[in-house]
């Protein structure tokens, strides 16, 4: 099962302070809008999303259908197929994708330690 591009989405207190911190670590702005209080930062294949006031906890994110540059992949495992696999493994989903649709969709699950995992397909 291929989950797609990996990133971590961080709930930050001050987007400008966090931006500067990650720039000092060698990251650069890849996408987002600082005025809307979200940025996606990258350093090679490492992606860190900075989000001020959008959610409570940090989120582990996977994007089926995307590489680490948000470019569409020709071959990937659709989020609905991933959902079926997880359900067959008796993994509880907090949010499910409509299995009767195609294209963009997402699912959410919680790992055993309470970490939120978002599998978010954009293609």
Strand order of the largest sheet: 2-3-4-1-5-8-7-6
Query: Radius of gyration in whole Å, from Cα?
Result: 15 Å
Beta content comes to 35-45%
Mean pLDDT: 96
Assign a percent range to the helix content: 10-25%
What does this structure look like?
The chain has 123 residues and is an alpha+beta fold. The chain is built from two helices and eight strands, in the order E-H-E-E-E-E-H-E-E-E. The model has no long low-confidence stretch (mean pLDDT 96).
Keywords, please?
globular; 123 residues; alpha+beta; single chain
Short description:
By secondary structure, the protein is an alpha+beta fold.
Furnish the topology, listing elements before pairings:
Blueprint: E1 5-12, H1 15-24, E2 28-33, E3 38-43, E4 46-52, E5 59-63, H2 79-88, E6 93-95, E7 105-110, E8 116-121
């Amino acid at each position: 099962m291929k989950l797609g591009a990996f990133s971590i989405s961080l709930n930050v207190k001050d987007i400008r302070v966090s931006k500067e911190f990650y720039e000092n670590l060698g990251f650069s702005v890849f996408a987002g809008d600082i005025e809307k209080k979200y940025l996606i930062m990258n350093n090679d294949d490492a992606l860190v999303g900075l989000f001020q006031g959008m959610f409570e906890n940090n989120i582990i994110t996977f994007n089926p259908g995307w590489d680490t540059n948000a470019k569409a992949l020709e071959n990937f495992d659709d989020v609905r197929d991933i959902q079926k696999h997880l359900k067959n493994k008796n993994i509880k989903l907090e949010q499910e994708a409509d299995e009767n649709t195609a294209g963009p969709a997402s699912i959410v699950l919680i790992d055993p330690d309470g970490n939120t995992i978002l599998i978010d397909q954009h293609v």
